[in-house]
Amino acid sequence: MVQSIIDLGENEDRILNIVKAKYGLKNRSQAISTLAKIYEDSFLEPELRPEYLEKLERIRKEGYGEKFSSIAQLRKKIEKR
To answer: Could you tell me the pTM of the whole model?
Structure first.
């Protein structure tokens, strides 16, 4: 665990108190951690799940789907269902 001494303005302190109350947190440290998590989820690139990466690789190898040489061929496929 890293400890830091930070200087906050009045407005930032109010925001931390609001976050603390909204999420039922015990102290400002938890409020700052919650804000960091919200920032991470909203703005940083998420890590892709391994299943999704496997699915992407399979699509790359197999292709994106069926190819049709004409509209008539596509219509036949659709009406078959």
So the answer is: 0.55
